[in-house]
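Students often ask why we bother encoding 3D structure as a string. The short answer is that it lets us treat folding as translation between two languages. Here is a chain of 110 residues written in the first language.
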Amino acid sequence: MFRNRKIRHKFNAVRTKNDRGTFHSKLEERYDRHLQLLMKAGEVLFYLSQIPLRLPGGTKYIVDFLVFYADGSVKFLDVKGIETNLFRLKKREIEAIYPIEIEIVKKGDF
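And here it is in the second language, the structure alphabet:
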């Protein structure tokens, strides 16, 4: 009876595909295309996506992008439409355990 009914994401995120993979939202896929343009411009050397970071208790946090810039800097970037309390908690834990800072990318940032 309900088998063909499509289940919506709780934040209305729509999974999107391009030639480089599947993304959890349209915003994340657009940022992937933005990073591709930065690579063509020579500002970004390369980037990785969906990087798991381990937390105590067997929990993991997945960072959307790990970007390596031409100037030698490296950034952990998370593309967010909505910042939940759980996200804020995990971000604080990751930044307390690892010597990194996770930067948040929002819709109007690029």
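Translate back mentally: The chain has one domain: 18-109. Keep this in mind for the problem set.
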